[in-house]
Structure formats: structure tokens, C-alpha cells
Write a structure and sequence with these properties.
By secondary structure, the chain is an alpha+beta fold. Helices cover about 20% and strands about 30% of the residues. It contains three helices and nine strands; from the N terminus they run E-H-E-E-E-H-E-E-E-E-H-E. It has helices spanning about 20-25, 75-80, 120-135; strands spanning about 10-15, 35-45, 50-60, 70, 85-90, 90-95, 105, 115, 140. Strands 1, 2, 3, 4, 5, 6, 7, 8 and 9 form a nine-stranded mixed β-sheet that branches. It is globular and about 40 Å long. The two termini are about 25 Å apart. About 30% of the residues are buried.
């Protein structure tokens, strides 16, 4: 698992003050709520740093089931998340240079919640790729 300075793994669930696309479109630059987010990609930068791409986990049922995946109850239990139904949103993402100013410890002070199962992580990434191909993916650069 990653600490604040260690690079996170693909499929790791971190606590991040996620900025939603609709918030960014209204001119907000800060997320208003810390939430679990899944690391879906890492990219090495020329300066030796790492850019991290995350998608949010939310309790709000999405309108479009092709752009989200329900988080399995057993996975939520293993990660010590709450018992409410949650969805992993794959139509938008935040990206930032690690560790980023919006990465936080979990509410119980762990560096991350843990890792998603490999199959679920692959499913999320495949859906993100599909959304990118059909231009329905909305990335938000959190460094700006």
C-alpha cells in the first residue's frame, strides 16, 4: 500500500478531495468532499515525478450504467468502507502529480483503503478506455 510519499498502485483506493466535472465547470478548483478514489493509471513525467489518474467512488446512483460500475459489497467490507451501495464512476477522472495537495489519509488514518480485486480493476480500466474512445471521458487536471 502507498504512503503519502510512495507511489500508489493501479487499483489502489486512496482518499482524495475529488473535483467533479460539474464543479470544475462552475469554476471551482477544490473538491468539497474527501472520498475514496481508485487509481487507474500512473504516468512517469520527465522530471522524475509520477502523474496519477483517479476515478471517484460515490453513493449517488449514476444515470448511465455504461459509465459506472457498482462496487461489490464484499470489496467494500474488505476495504473498510461504509455499508451503503456505491458506484465507481468511469466517465470522468482527476489527474495530478503525486502526491498532490488533495490526497488525504483515510478517516481511520491509513495511507489508503487497500487494493481492488484485479478483475474489478481491469473492468474499470476497460470501461474508461471505452469512454475515452467515444469521447465521453472528462479528465480534470488538478495541477492547474
Amino acid at each position: 500500500m502507498s504512503g503519502k510519499n510512495a507511489f500508489p498502485q493501479i487499483g489502489e483506493v486512496i482518499c482524495h478531495a475529488y473535483l467533479w466535472r460539474n464543479q470544475a465547470d462552475r469554476g471551482q478548483t477544490e473538491g468539497t468532499k474527501e472520498r475514496p478514489c481508485v487509481v487507474v493509471h500512473r504516468q512517469e513525467e520527465l522530471d522524475g515525478g509520477v502523474r496519477v489518474f483517479v476515478v471517484p467512488i460515490t453513493h449517488t446512483k449514476p444515470f448511465d450504467s455504461e459509465r459506472s460500475i457498482e462496487c461489490p459489497t464484499r470489496t467494500k467490507q474488505r476495504l473498510l468502507l461504509d455499508k451503503q451501495t456505491s458506484w465507481i464512476i468511469t466517465s470522468e477522472l482527476n489527474h495530478f502529480k503525486w502526491p498532490g495537495f488533495d490526497v488525504r489519509p483515510t478517516p481511520d488514518n491509513r495511507p489508503s483503503y487497500g487494493l481492488l480485486p484485479n478483475g474489478l480493476t481491469r473492468q474499470i480500466i476497460e470501461q474508461i478506455k471505452n469512454n475515452s474512445r467515444d469521447r465521453s471521458l472528462s479528465p480534470i487536471n488538478r495541477d492547474e
